[in-house]
Amino acid sequence: MSELKKTLSLSQVVLFGLAYMTPIIVLGTFGVLAVVSEGAVSGTYLIALLAMLFTAHSYGRMASAYPVAGSAYAYVRHAIDDRLGFLAGWAILLDYLFLPMVIWLIGAAYLSSAFPAIPQAVWLLAFIAVTTLINILGLKLASVVNSVMMLVQVLVLVAFVGLSMHYILGDPTQPFWSLAPFLGAESSASLSTLMAGAAVACYSFLGFDAVTTLTEETKDPKRTLPRAILLITLIGGLIFIIVSYFVQLAAPSTDFANPDAAAYGIARNIGGDIFVSIFLIGLIVGQFASGIAAQASGARLLYAMGRDDVLPKRLLGRLGKFGTPVGGLCLSAAVALLALTMDVLSAASFINFGAFLAFALVNTAVIFHYYLKERRRGGLDTLWFLICPLIGLGAILWLMASLDHLAITLGSLWLACGLAWLVWLTRGFRQPPPALHFDEG
After folding, report:
1. 431 is a domain residue
2. Containing domain of residue 257, as a range?
3. What are the transmembrane regions (predicted)?
4. What is the CATH number of the domain that holds 151?
5. How many domains does the chain have?
6. Which residues, 6 or more positions from 45, have their beta carbon under 8 angstroms from its beta carbon?
7. How much is the average pLDDT of 64-69?
8. In a domain, 386, yes or no
9. Is residue 430 part of a domain?
10. DSSP string, 147-185
11. Where does the pLDDT of residue 166 fall: very low under 50, low under 70, confident under 90, or very high at 90 and above?
12. What pTM was computed for the model?
């Protein structure tokens, strides 16, 4: 069997990771974050970035130790325990299964603001139907298309920041430099408020670990992937902080008619009708492309779990006429219908619970693998393999506790279902859980 060629450089891997994160999401969720953080969006992104850097460090270390597909599932399974690995995979499943729903919900909210005569539900159903049909037919976005999508997003972000700066400079009462975007209006945001905002802001970072799937195609992956993961997290975080800073100064109020689509009104205010149309096109294109990739990835994970008898094989473990996992795609579409009764804040917070659970387990895996098993306890080794992952673990647990009560309740129910399913699969823990194979299909 032929092997994949190792052709990807550090810069190419970083570009892939940034494209997967979809940087324009900083505008898509700006209104929600502004309301939750009481006008301290940049502050919430700064806190989220600091927490994510420690977790990114842990992902990089584990990618170096286990350069295999499966990300958190594989790391926890190999470093700690098969059963905890299963729960890490279950947490990842929550993200993959519900992420398309959030993406389509954001896109539908903005289209509804642009065309208020058409109900948001119509846009949402259109997103679900068109994206699912494309994925069932097996049409994949080529790398060149992804590059174009990334370029469109960057151009829209640059234009948005430029117009925000122009708008700020045109208002003599508005300072160009201010701590308000970090601390809230008149520095009034409390730490608990900032943490609640940061818990939601982490949604924008989801996907920084996606480059671990490129292990077999990356030059010197044990060295390149850890650096790439840290760079993706750092660059993405700086983009979020800078963009939100100037947008927050241009729109200091948190009184939005529709927080789910606040950037639409801000775009009209700073750039007029022409720019708001350009912004809308850029955001919808970005959300559409991201939705295709997210649904395809989620369906692939469901297929892997179905094929390995972790989930019902008859429904999810078989490919359709076009060689695509139709069962997983249809399940993803059905789950997305829940968005008809949810808003962006609730949906994003819910899937962040799954991400935080996986992040916490990966930080723990670093300690188990390097500090306990390999006994790497020298001066710097203690810093890298004990202190840093402990800080990352503590930050993630704090962010998880800062999620809204509904997200914690739904996430806990999801985890309880996973634990119950694990008990059934292992016949009461009397046998090991079936292994997942992410390098096929």
Report:
1. no
2. 12-425
3. 12-36, 42-63, 84-111, 117-138, 150-169, 189-208, 228-247, 274-302, 322-342, 348-371, 383-400, 406-425
4. 1.20.1740.10
5. 1
6. 26, 198, 201, 204, 237, 240, 241, 244
7. 77
8. yes
9. no
10. HHHHHHHHHHHHHHHHHHHHHHHT-TTS-SS-SHHHH-G
11. very high
12. 0.86
